[in-house]
Amino acid sequence: MNIGQAAARSGVSAKMIRYYESIGLLEPSRRSASGYRQYGDKDLHALGFIRRARELGFPLKQVAALMALWHDKSRASAEVKQLAETHIAELEHKAQMLKEMAATLRNLADHCHGDERPDCPILEGLQGGAEPCHTDS
Fold first, then answer.
1. Where are the domains of the chain?
2. Contact 3, 29 (CB under 8 A)
3. Could you tell me which CATH number the domain at 1-75 has?
4. DSSP-assigned states of every residue in 101-137
5. Which one, 67, 84, 90, 118, has the greatest CB density within 10 A?
6. How confident is the model over 85-99, as pLDDT tens digits?
7. Where in the cell is it found (predicted)?
8. How many other C-beta atoms can be found within 10 angstroms of the C-beta atom of residue 87?
9. Nearest-angstrom CA–CA distance, 50 and 37
């Protein structure tokens, strides 16, 4: 199948397939006599693996490590688990940071009158971390 068909079947865009090939994450495709990329089931499985790992937020460097472990039939599952646990910790840290950012922004928005007045606790908070004012004027 050509790159368009591989993209449609794998859920990975043709542009990303070319990129994954260029960085060595995906083996270079075979070429037809006319020079077009040709993909098979093995390529689709690899693209599906990459797509799912990316959906779970793994950075490309870790996707490459996971791919290497996936292909290594003598791997220790402990290595795979360690990569996953490290990624889980990173995701949990990011989630906590997002919660804190949302709470800060929610606090600023709660103190904004949202009317025709020019004073705005949100903008004040963005310019220097000022605490929202509690005026009722």
1. 1-75, 76-137
2. yes
3. 1.10.1660.10
4. HHHHHHHHHHT---SS-S--HHHHHHHH-PPPP----
5. 67
6. 999 999 999 999 999
7. Cytoplasm
8. 17
9. 19
